[in-house]
Structures are given as C-alpha cells and as structure tokens.
Write a structure and sequence with these properties.
alpha+beta; single chain; five-stranded mixed sheet; 364 residues; binds adenosine-5'-triphosphate; four-stranded antiparallel sheet
C-alpha cells in the first residue's frame, strides 16, 4: 500500500489529483510517479495501474530490429482506451488519463459480462471502446456500425505490473464471452512474409492497423498503422484544423509516405488524390460551417441514467483544452435510454475562418 503521506505530497506537487465518482474517492496520477504510469488510480489499498504507452514501428524493417522472438498479431482497434475494474461492489470504467468515465461506467454491463468480477474481483479489463456514439471520438470504426462496442486487448491485476500472456487472456475471454480485438496469429520476425498481406487487407478495409505483442517474458509490444488510418485521422482532425498542433498533420503525412514505401505501392495517383481530399474536403465543410456561424464537432451518446449524462457534461468542461467549449444540445429520454447530444466548439478554426470570410486583412 502506498503511504497516504506520499500521495498527499504527489497531490501537492501536482503530480496527482483527487477525484471522486459517486461515493468513491480516488487519486489519479497526472504523470508517471514511483514506477506507476500516468493514469494510475489510487485509493487506499486499491491500485489500478495506468495503461502504458506503446511504441510505434515506423517501417516494417523496425520489426526486425525491435522483436527478438515470435509475436502475436492483433488488430489495433480505433477508439478510446478504457480499463474496467471492480472496487467493493461497484464496477467502474476509467479513461487513459485515469478519470472514471461516466459514459463508459454507465454502459459497462452492455460492454462486458460483469460476472467475470464475481469470479476474479481483482482483474482489470483493458480494451478499446469504439462506435459512432462515443463522447470522445469523431468518426467511427468499420467494426461497429452503430452505438458502441468494446474490444478486450489486455488483462492486468490490480496492483500488478505485468499483462497476462496473450494466450491466457484469450482463454479468459472465451470463458466469459468477452469481446476481443480481432486476432491474426503468431509470426516469427525471421519470416515476416505474412505481415504485409495482413496490413494491406486492413488498409483496404480502412482499419487502423496492428499491435504486435512479443511472445516472451519481456512482453514487448509495438504498433504499426495503415495508410488509410493516417488519411482518416487527417480528414477527421482537419475538421478542427487550427485547434490541433500542426505536427499532428506533418507527422501523419510523413508516416503515410513511409507506409507507401513499405507496401511497395508504385501506382500512387489514387493516394495523391485521397490525401488531397482528406484535407480539402474537410476544409470545405468547415468553411460552410463557419459561414453558418461556428465550426463544431457534434456528438451523440446514450445512457441508462440521466445523472451519468450530466456527470459527463461536467467532466468535459474540466478536460484541459476543452474548457468552455462544450455546449449541451439536448438530453432526452427515447425508448428507455437517455440520449445526450452536445457540441465541441473548435474556437481557433472558427475564429480564423470567420475573420477570413468577413474580409479581414491578415499580415503573415
Ligand atoms: P500511446 O500513448 O500508447 O502512444 P495513443 O493515445 O497515442 O497512445 P495510439 O497511438 O492509438 O494511442 O496507440 C496505443 C493505443 O492503441 C492503446 O492505448 C490502446 O488504447 C489502443 N489499442 C487498440 N487496439 C489495441 C491492441 N490490440 N492492443 C493494445 N492496444 C490497443
């Protein structure tokens, strides 16, 4: 157990923050601290470790240098990271940053069978939530055409530092019928022939990419992303063009160019067209939106409890970079669920375009 005085000091030094959800009070780490990653939740004896960062192999040849043993190939599902866990009699879902998420917690029983926690109360189910109706991600994954879905990709124990080996996790998922990320087998880094075919199939279906997990004690992992995913990120973030750092785009264009080399694409015309479209089509929409008054992202998500929808709105107002930018559109009961509709204002994009459309002079 971490002494309360240490936690107190971490809070005082702004490395951690006190939070609560209902009756449960906890502290979440804003930075890596005492060997625990950012996003770790602490409450008395309870430690819910943060989900660690996964490095990117930027070219397939990176796999040869980085992997020392055969690895499992899993789909990288595009959504937001959650950890689902039990404390006392309650089951919570936390986001990457370590906040208990009112939306995911409200919907937890739709995502996983909660009986797993009766048999294994100390497990933490790590997975991706995706779909067209989340409060965090614009756009959707082809894997979930409506509402939301959960895909398990790792299991850890409360207070533990390592992941379950992939085969153990998959056995657990089978026993409790937990939905998992799609799985594409085991590959030896000495013979990578199969991998480009897997990646290019995913690319053709506009899916995000793969996470490779070494079948060894060090359990090394790395991600590799498709060209289509780079394009769909560009198209989606161009909706808030001036509200994201420019490196967001420059890095993705570079990664796309490396991807095309990796896949040996010789006929590039279609890719050139798609890259132009990713930027210009989204910007055309934004200009039309600015003419109407504002550039904003629209979100809709459904809840079982009205109170959780209100909690989410409250939290969105607090998230750094979103202060004052979230606007409630409606909260209505429909067919037994509460539908929350809200907008996030993209302030810089709106300001720039409105000035330009309004005829202002700019010195650049
Ligand atoms: P990071 O800090 O790890 O770079 P990020 O927010 O930049 O995180 P990504 O670049 O999308 O995220 O890559 C890592 C994330 O991919 C993980 O945090 C997890 O949410 C997600 N993910 C999707 N599928 C898998 C999978 N099969 N295994 C592990 N993580 C996965």
């Amino acid at each position: 157990m971490i002494p309360e005085s240490d936690i107190h000091a971490a809070v005082a030094e702004k490395k951690a923050k006190r939070e609560s959800f209902g009756d449960w009070a906890y502290v979440r780490l804003l930075h890596d601290w005492h060997g625990w990653p950012r996003g770790t939740l602490l409450a008395g004896e309870v430690v819910i470790p943060g989900y660690p960062k996964i490095g990117r192999v930027q070219t397939l040849s990176g796999i040869l240098t980085q992997f020392h043993a055969p690895f499992w190939v899993e789909e990288k599902v595009d959504g937001y990271n959650v950890r689902i866990f039990r404390v006392g009699d309650e089951i919570y879902a936390a986001t990457r940053g370590g906040l208990v998420c009112p939306f995911t917690t409200d919907r937890r029983a739709d995502l996983v069978d909660p009986t797993i926690f009766s048999a294994h109360p100390d497990l933490i189910l790590c997975g991706e939530v995706t779909g067209p109706e989340t409060p965090y991600v614009e756009g959707t994954s082809p894997l979930v055409p409506q509402d939301i879905g959960f895909f398990l990709f790792d299991v850890i124990r409360q207070g533990g530092k390592g992941f379950f080996p992939v085969e153990e996790r998959r056995a657990l998922a089978r026993s409790f019928a937990l939905p998992e990320v799609p799985f594409y087998g085991r590959i030896d880094p000495k013979d990578l022939r199969e991998l480009p075919a897997i990646v290019s199939r995913l690319d053709a279906q506009e899916r995000e990419g793969v996470v490779l997990k070494e079948d060894s004690l060090r359990n090394f992992r790395a991600k590799y992303v498709t060209g289509s995913a780079e394009l769909s990120d560009i198209a989606s973030m161009t909706q808030r063009y001036l509200d994201v750092p420019p490196e967001y785009f420059t890095e993705r264009v570079l990664r796309l160019a490396l991807f095309l080399e990796d896949m040996g694409v010789t006929d590039r015309e279609e890719w050139y067209r798609r890259l132009g479209k990713a930027f210009l089509s989204a910007l055309r929409e934004r200009i039309a939106a600015a003419r109407q008054g504002r550039c904003a992202g629209s979100f809709c998500c459904r809840f079982h409890a009205r109170e959780n929808a209100l909690r989410l709105l409250d939290d969105l107002g607090q998230i750094h970079g979103h202060e004052g930018e979230t606007r409630l559109v409606s909260l209505q009961e429909e067919g037994g669920s509460w539908f929350l509709r809200f907008e996030k204002l993209y302030r810089s994009t709106t300001g720039f375009l409105r000035n330009a459309l309004g005829g202002s002079l700019r010195f650049d």
